[in-house]
């Protein structure tokens, strides 16, 4: 049995947004308090992280993360990437495998050059592998496939891990990626707000994708402060759910 824990479910601002007094930002519902989006998958005592945003340290402490075996990166925007330095506690005396696209590999080398091929103490030691789109590889006990999706004008990676797909920051799934997303048990997809956005799916568009793929369960993440948990949850059809920070779900092997 594998599990998926939502370490964060918020958009790039996080919730509450700095200086905002809106209904969601001042909500007493803990499910409306959202760190930047990231998930942790575990299976057979193997831990696989997707993205390390600015709050990764806080997320790791909050969920009691004791070890980490590998990392996937979707893209290099700050809200998914800038916590990379806090990986160092998991690889002080070893190299941590990181898997991503060629553009993200270059971003790591340019923005955090010390984490690659470094030898000093107190820094991350990362081994970065570039994944080929649609090619399934074994990462520990997981079967992982990098799936190109569109984020505005940027081509980034979503991931299929066994029968779970994680598609955050998605504004379009190219037709050639749809075959790799069939027969899913769980689909996690970004749903920024109720009306269209040039770089992200709206709730309507994320719902349409879930229905198109006929996923057994669909979880919305990367939510803005325009969406309150309880209100959105009440609108959703059976099989659709609003993810929230620290929610853990289980999947069949």
Note down, in words, how this protein is organized:
The protein has 253 residues and is an alpha/beta fold. It has a single domain, classed as Metallo-beta-lactamase, Chain A. The chain is 16% helix and 29% strand. The protein contains 5 helices and 14 strands. The radius of gyration is 17 Å and the shape is globular. The mean pLDDT is 97.
Secondary-structure blueprint of this entry?
Blueprint: E1 2-8, E2 38-43, E3 46-50, H1 56-63, E4 70-72, H2 78-81, E5 96-100, H3 102-111, E6 126-130, E7 136-139, E8 142-151, E9 154-161, E10 164-167, E11 186-190, H4 203-213, E12 217-221, H5 229-235, E13 240-242, E14 248-251
Parallel strand pairs: 3-4, 4-5, 5-6, 10-11, 11-12, 12-13
Antiparallel strand pairs: 1-2, 1-14, 2-3, 7-8, 8-9, 9-10
Provide the succession of SSEs: EEEHEHEHEEEEEEHEHEE
**Major sheet: order of its strands?**
6-5-4-3-2-1-14
CATH homologous superfamily, by name? Ribonuclease Z/Hydroxyacylglutathione hydrolase-like
Number of helices: 5
Strand content: 25-35%
Cα Rg: 17 Å
How widely separated are the two ends? 5 Å
CATH topology: Metallo-beta-lactamase, Chain A
Which CATH class is shown? Alpha Beta
Features:
single chain, 253 residues, alpha/beta, Metallo-beta-lactamase, Chain A, seven-stranded mixed β-sheet, 5 helices, 14 strands, 29% strand
